[in-house]
UniProtKB/TrEMBL annotation:
<dbReference type="InterPro" id="IPR051265">
    <property type="entry name" value="HIBADH-related_NP60_sf"/>
</dbReference>
<dbReference type="GO" id="GO:0050661">
    <property type="term" value="F:NADP binding"/>
</dbReference>
<dbReference type="InterPro" id="IPR013328">
    <property type="entry name" value="6PGD_dom2"/>
</dbReference>
<comment type="similarity">
    <text>Belongs to the HIBADH-related family.</text>
</comment>
<dbReference type="InterPro" id="IPR015815">
    <property type="entry name" value="HIBADH-related"/>
</dbReference>
<dbReference type="InterPro" id="IPR036291">
    <property type="entry name" value="NAD(P)-bd_dom_sf"/>
</dbReference>
<feature type="domain" description="6-phosphogluconate dehydrogenase NADP-binding">
    <location>
        <begin position="5"/>
        <end position="149"/>
    </location>
</feature>
<dbReference type="Pfam" id="PF03446">
    <property type="entry name" value="NAD_binding_2"/>
</dbReference>
<dbReference type="GO" id="GO:0016491">
    <property type="term" value="F:oxidoreductase activity"/>
</dbReference>
<feature type="domain" description="NADPH-dependent reductive aminase-like C-terminal">
    <location>
        <begin position="156"/>
        <end position="282"/>
    </location>
</feature>
<dbReference type="Pfam" id="PF21761">
    <property type="entry name" value="RedAm-like_C"/>
</dbReference>
<protein>
    <submittedName>
        <fullName>3-hydroxyisobutyrate dehydrogenase-like beta-hydroxyacid dehydrogenase</fullName>
    </submittedName>
</protein>
<dbReference type="InterPro" id="IPR048666">
    <property type="entry name" value="RedAm-like_C"/>
</dbReference>
<keyword id="KW-0560">Oxidoreductase</keyword>
<dbReference type="InterPro" id="IPR006115">
    <property type="entry name" value="6PGDH_NADP-bd"/>
</dbReference>
Length: 286
């Protein structure tokens, strides 16, 4: 028989997690603040606990999927975690994850970052970052693999959140550019579908193939002179802003990249490639 699992939180994601455990044959004990949420889990064999403490007591492995970090702290307050492994899949910052690991130090702690939407859970495209207790990860790897491909990224509990947030910033940056491009196309009534399928998607796909080269430049130093140096890009970028304003499109999604290009050129990186912007950004934050 497969080991039992407790799931705290039956929102859209917690319900998908519980459903995947049930489908794989894990006895699954569930708790949600608002009783009776996701009634379909009852028919699948879930056992409902009336309190979070009762749910935690029922399994050695406790998976938490609540709204935000503060919800986790208030829910877990005063619960005996002796001998438990807690896997917190609630979205957090790296520092929040480290604080939660300290707060729940009576348990073996793994923090997680889910790279999927609920419908993807249990499917082959989903993956979940884990960091924290290596022993807990090894012990529960097979159970966690029920949800999504498990990717363990280190003993620092904050590292899963760092990976998660880095991928999300990549995604939002990409969508910000695409949304702006669609607004520009729409300013001349170009059909979004054909503009996207004929031009935007192939262009973005082609541009993304340069990412491994950018990463290699960061790891090993630039291998060759930039084909499209930052001085040229900064000069051309003004046209992106001017054309947007002239077309009645709010440029606020694309202005920051122009600012960063100018800052890089002013800092002496005019002959460098896009990879140099990573250092400029890190210096600015530091
Ligand atoms: P939902 O809004 O659907 O569910 C939120 C859950 O948190 C519910 O179980 C809710 O309980 C509970 N909750 C909220 N406030 C409290 C509280 N004060 N005390 C106790 N429980 C509380 O969110 P999701 O399930 O979609 O998301 C859960 C986590 O998963 C989030 O951290 C989210 O960022 C992350 N995530 C979600 C993804 C998605 O696409 N949905 C993708 C990747 C990560 P109640 O029913 O009582 O309100």
């Amino acid at each position: 028989m497969k080991p039992p699992v407790t799931v705290l939180g039956l929102g859209a994601m917690g319900t998908a997690l519980a459903r995947a455990f049930l489908a794989a044959g894990h006895p699954t004990i569930v708790w949600n603040r608002t009783p009776g949420r996701s009634p379909e889990l009852d028919a699948l064999g879930a056992t409902r606990a009336t309190t979070a403490a009762e749910a935690v007591a029922a399994s050695p492995l406790v998976v938490i999927c609540l709204l935000v970090d503060a919800t986790v702290h208030s829910t877990m307050e005063g619960i005996d975690l002796t001998g438990k492994t807690v896997v917190n899949l609630t979205n957090s910052t790296p520092d929040q994850a480290r604080d939660t690991a300290k707060l729940l130090d009576a348990a073996e702690y793994l923090d997680g970052g889910i790279m999927a939407v609920p419908a993807m859970i249990g499917g082959s495209a989903a993956f979940i970052f884990y960091s924290g207790s290596a022993a807990a990860f090894e012990q529960h790897r097979d159970t966690l693999a029920t949800l999504a491909r498990p990717e363990y990224v280190g003993t620092d509990p904050g590292l899963a959140a760092l990976h998660d947030i880095a991928l999300l910033t990549g995604m939002y940056g990409m969508f910000a550019g695409a949304i702006h491009a669609l607004a520009l196309a729409g300013s001349e009534q170009l059909p979004a579908g054909s503009f996207t399928n004929r031009f935007l998607l192939p262009w973005l796909t082609a541009m993304l193939t340069s990412l491994p080269r950018i990463a290699k430049d960061l790891d090993d130093g630039p291998a060759e002179p930039a084909g499209s140096n930052l001085a040229m890009q900064a000069a051309a970028y003004d046209n992106l802003i001017d054309a947007s304003v002239a077309q009645g499109v709010d440029p606020s999604l694309v202005v920051p990249m122009g600012d960063l290009l100018r800052k890089a050129v002013a800092g002496g990186y005019g002959e460098a490639d896009l990879a140099a912007l990573v250092g400029v950004l890190r210096t600015a934050a530091g």
